[in-house]
């Protein structure tokens, strides 16, 4: 697998910085190679082209992101706590890596349909985590039993996504992670039976 090769992480991390700084369309492979401290040709030992770098970057970073969320929420005892942890981790992980937040919130949105399809494939695992929290809340009797899981998942993900995008657009003038409790409360108020 290519992500076990020694320079893979170096190139991915460089790509995040270069794309965040220059935008995807203005980020030449040569700029990424220079930032990674490798020869241009080395990039092609790992990636087919610039689009492959972007997809691989998302798969790698999002894979780590989701794995951490899965591990952390597994330690929580109920759906409300799991949802809070998911929100907290979503905001803190992107809030701690501004270049990655810029790439995920702005640059990936400008990509072509085929690329967006590949990105959506990666997101499916994350959406399943959200679904499991919703289902658990329904089973616990704390969320409405007649909730449309697919719609609720879209609302939760959309809320988190838009909150991060707004933070990026406002040039990170506030602490993103500080928004977690308030966003959680708003979502819980909409999901709860009370």
TrEMBL record:
It comes from Sediminibacillus albus. Residues 28-47 bind DNA. This is TetR/AcrR family transcriptional regulator, fatty acid metabolism regulator protein. Coiled coil: none annotated. Residues 5-65 form the HTH tetR-type domain. One of its GO terms (molecular function) is DNA binding. Keywords: DNA-binding, Repressor. It holds the Pfam family TetR_C_4. InterPro entries: Homeodomain-like_sf, HTH-type_Tx_Regulator, HTH_TetR, Tet_transcr_reg_TetR-rel_C_sf, Tscrpt_reg_YsiA_C. The lineage of its organism: Bacteria, Bacillati, Bacillota, Bacilli, Bacillales.
């Amino acid at each position: 697998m290519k992500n076990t090769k020694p320079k893979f992480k170096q190139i991915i991390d460089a790509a995040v910085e270069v794309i965040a700084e220059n935008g995807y369309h203005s980020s030449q492979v040569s700029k990424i190679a220079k930032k990674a401290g490798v020869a241009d040709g080395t990039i092609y030992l790992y990636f087919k082209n610039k689009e492959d770098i972007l997809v691989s970057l998302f798969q790698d970073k999002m894979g780590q992101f989701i794995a951490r969320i899965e591990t952390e929420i597994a330690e929580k005892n109920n759906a409300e706590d799991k949802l809070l942890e998911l929100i907290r981790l979503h905001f803190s992980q992107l809030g701690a890596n501004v270049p990655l937040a810029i790439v995920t919130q702005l640059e990936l949105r400008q990509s072509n349909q085929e690329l967006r399809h590949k990105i959506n494939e990666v997101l499916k695992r994350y959406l399943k985590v959200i679904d499991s929290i919703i289902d658990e809340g329904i089973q616990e009797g704390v969320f409405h039993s007649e909730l449309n899981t697919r719609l609720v998942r879209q609302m939760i993900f959309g809320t988190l996504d838009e909150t991060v995008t707004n933070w990026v657009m406002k040039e990170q003038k506030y602490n993103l992670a500080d928004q977690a409790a308030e966003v959680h409360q708003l979502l819980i108020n909409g999901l709860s039976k009370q």
